[in-house]
User: Fold this.
Amino acid sequence: MTWISEVADEPLALEPADLRVEWETNTWSLGAADEDRSSLSVTEVVAAFKQTAAAIRERIHVWAFLG
Assistant:
């Protein structure tokens, strides 16, 4: 699940006036090799994404972003 959790540490842009900057900075592509996919459970993947979303929300909260 490392590849999912690493997204929380990637650069993050909050630029409501420049959606292109947000799109280019905040869009990631994640994938797993066939052999890795066969060992993952839906529950694990969902939990990893929830943890990553919570970490990103915390970063935004710390910045006191209101937009």
About this structure: The mean pLDDT is 89. Residues 6 and 50 are 13 Å apart (CA to CA). The longest helix spans residues 42-62.
